[in-house]
From TrEMBL:
Main location: membrane
Transmembrane segments: 54-76, 96-114, 126-149, 222-246, 275-295, 301-325, 332-351, 357-381, 393-413, 419-442
Name this polypeptide is given: Lysosomal dipeptide transporter MFSD1
Species of provenance: Phasianus colchicus (Common pheasant)
Any one GO MF annotation of this record: transmembrane transporter activity
Length: 452
C-alpha cells in the first residue's frame, strides 16, 4: 500500500522511488528537467502547492454551507410554517429541539465515528447524505401536510449537521498547519454565517415565487420552497465527494495520513472536571439559549433581515476577533464584554422603542466575540488528554439546553407574549453574567487565571 511505502521511504533505493513517483504523477515530461524526471503537475492539480490547497479550502468552506442554510429554514419561514401547517409557536420551536436532541449524544461519538469507523472521507459523505435526506423528509412532511414527518426530518438532519462540522474541522487540520489554521477556521465560520444570512433573506422570496406559480398558498407551497432550499445541501454533498477524491489523491501523491479529529473521549473524566470548567458550561448554555432560540423566533419579532444582521456582522467579525483575542489574551474580559453587550441588546428590545438595528448590531458583535473567546478557555482549565471529553460534554449540554429552551420559548410566546419572552432571554443572559463573574473570582483565588 501507499501508506506502507511511506513508512519504508528512506529504505528504498533512489531509482525505485523515482519509478513509483512516475507511476503516480504520469509519464516523463518536459518541465525543463532532465530526461527521466517526473512530469510537473499544473499548480492547481499539485496537492503540495498553494493553488490546489486554495481549491481544497473553498470546498471545505462550502462543505457546511448547505447545512447552515437549511438549519434556519424554519426561522426564515416561521409565519408560513405556522400558518400552512396550523401549529402554535411551541410546536414550531420543536423543529429546533428535534435538531438538537440527537446531538446531545452524537457530540461524544462524532469524532469516534470519523476516526475509527468511517474515516474522514467516507464519514463526511455519510454525514452530508444525512443532511440531504433530513431536508428532503422535512420538505415532504410539508408537502404531505404531516408535521410529525417534518419533525422526523429535522431529527435526521441534526444527526448529520453537527458531525459534519467536526469533519470539516478535521479536514482543515489535515491540510493546513500552524498559524494558517486561525484564518482557515475563521473563513469556515464566515461561510457558515453567510449561509445563514442568505437563507434569512431568500427563503421568503422563494416561497413567494412558488406561491405565484401555483396561484395559491398552503402546505404544498411550503414543501416546494423547502425542497428548493435543499438544493444547497446537494451542492454541499457534491463538495464532500470532490473533497474526498482530492484527499485520497493527495494521500497517494504525498504519502500523507488521513485526517484525525484527535478526540479522545472518556466519560469517566467528567467526575474530575473543575469548578471553573462547570462555570464555562453554564456560561455556554445560558448565553446561547438567549441567541439561537431568539433568532429562531425572530420572524415574529420583526423582519427576517433584522435577524440576519447577527449573521451578517458575524461573518467578517469572527476572524477579526479571533486574531484580536489571540494577540491580547484576557479571554474572560472579552467574554464579560460579550455577555454584558448581549444583555444590553435584549433589554433595549424589551423596554425601549429604539430602532431595533441598534440592538441587533450589538448582538451580532457580541455573538462573534463570545464565540472567539469562550471556547478556547476550556484549554486553560483542562489537561490536554481531557480536551476531547470536555468539548464533547460542552457541546452535549449546549444542545440539551437549546432543545429545552427552544420549546420553553415557544410556550412562553404562546401564553405570555413578546415582552415576557424578552424578560426570559434577559434572565438567561443574566445567569451567564453571574457565571462569568464567579469564574473570574474562582480563577483569581486559585491562582489559575493564566490566559484568562
Amino acid at each position: 500500500t501507499f501508506r506502507a511505502q511511506c513508512g519504508l521511504k528512506k529504505a528504498l533505493p533512489s531509482r525505485r522511488r523515482k519509478a513509483q513517483q512516475r507511476a503516480l504523477l504520469g509519464p516523463d515530461g518536459g518541465d525543463g528537467g532532465s530526461a527521466g524526471s517526473p512530469r510537473a503537475l499544473p499548480a492547481v492539480c499539485d496537492p503540495s502547492r498553494l493553488p490546489h490547497r486554495l481549491l481544497v479550502l473553498a470546498l471545505m468552506c462550502f462543505l457546511g454551507f448547505g447545512s447552515c442554510f437549511c438549519y434556519d429554514n424554519p426561522a426564515a419561514l416561521q409565519t408560513q410554517v405556522q400558518g400552512d401547517m396550523k401549529v402554535n409557536t411551541a410546536r414550531f420551536m420543536a423543529l429546533y429541539a428535534w435538531y438538537s436532541w440527537p446531538n446531545v449524544v452524537l457530540c461524544f461519538f462524532g469524532g469516534f465515528l470519523i476516526d475509527r469507523v468511517f474515516g474522514i472521507r467516507l464519514g463526511t459523505v455519510i454525514f452530508s447524505i444525512f443532511v440531504c435526506v433530513g431536508q428532503v423528509i422535512f420538505a415532504l412532511g410539508a408537502l404531505l401536510n404531516a408535521f410529525w414527518l417534518m419533525e422526523v426530518g429535522r431529527f435526521i438532519f441534526g444527526i448529520g449537521g453537527e458531525s459534519l462540522a467536526v469533519a470539516q474541522n478535521t479536514y482543515a487540520v489535515s491540510w493546513f498547519k500552524g498559524k494558517e489554521l486561525n484564518l482557515v477556521f475563521g473563513l469556515q465560520l464566515s461561510m457558515a454565517r453567510i449561509g445563514s444570512t442568505v437563507n434569512m433573506n431568500i427563503m421568503g422570496w422563494i416561497y413567494s415565487r412558488v406561491q405565484d406559480l401555483l396561484k395559491h398558498t398552503g402546505h404544498t407551497t411550503l414543501g416546494l420552497a423547502l425542497l428548493i432550499g435543499g438544493i444547497t445541501c446537494l451542492f454541499s454533498l457534491a463538495c464532500a465527494l470532490i473533497l474526498a477524491y482530492l484527499d485520497k489523491r493527495a494521500e497517494k501523491l504525498l504519502c500523507k495520513e488521513q485526517g484525525k479529529t484527535g478526540e479522545v473521549i472518556k466519560l469517566t473524566d467528567v467526575k474530575n472536571f473543575s469548578l471553573s470548567l462547570w462555570l464555562i458550561f453554564v456560561i455556554c448554555v445560558c448565553y446561547y439559549a438567549a441567541v439561537f432560540p431568539f433568532i429562531g423566533l425572530g420572524k415574529k419579532f420583526s423582519f427576517s433581515f433584522f435577524c440576519s444582521v447577527v449573521y451578517i456582522i458575524s461573518a467578517p467579525m469572527s476572524p477579526i476577533f479571533g486574531i484580536l483575542v489571540d494577540k491580547i489574551g484576557k479571554n474572560i474580559i472579552w467574554v464579560l464584554c460579550a455577555v454584558v453587550t448581549t444583555l444590553a441588546s435584549h433589554i433595549m428590545l424589551a423596554f425601549t422603542f429604539w430602532n431595533p438595528w441598534i440592538a441587533m448590531c450589538l448582538l451580532g458583535v457580541a455573538y462573534s466575540l463570545l464565540a472567539c473567546a469562550l471556547w478556547p478557555m476550556v484549554a486553560f482549565v483542562v489537561p490536554e488528554h481531557q480536551l476531547g471529553t470536555a468539548y464533547g460534554f460542552m457541546q452535549s449540554i449546549q444542545n440539551l439546553g437549546l432543545a429545552v429552551i427552544s420549546i420553553a420559548a415557544g410556550m412562553i410566546l404562546d401564553t405570555r407574549g413578546y415582552l415576557f419572552l424578552e424578560v426570559f432571554f434577559s434572565a438567561c443572559v443574566s445567569l451567564s453574567l453571574v457565571a462569568v463573574v464567579m469564574l473570574y473570582f474562582v480563577n483569581h483565588l486559585t491562582g489559575k487565571s493564566g490566559g484568562f
